[in-house]
Design a protein that fits this description.
With 46 residues, this protein is mostly helical. The chain contains one helix and no strands.
Length: 46
Amino acid sequence: MKPIRLLTLATLVLLGLTACNTISGIGKDVKKAGEVVTREAEEARN
């Protein structure tokens, strides 16, 4: 494989892995925010 193709492939793989971690982090943040909103709504109801 030509060096430029190998470098391009490696870069795309690393970017893909970084994107997965970012999306996972956003999902965790949204989940945590939803839990807080739910808890506050339940406390306000009581």
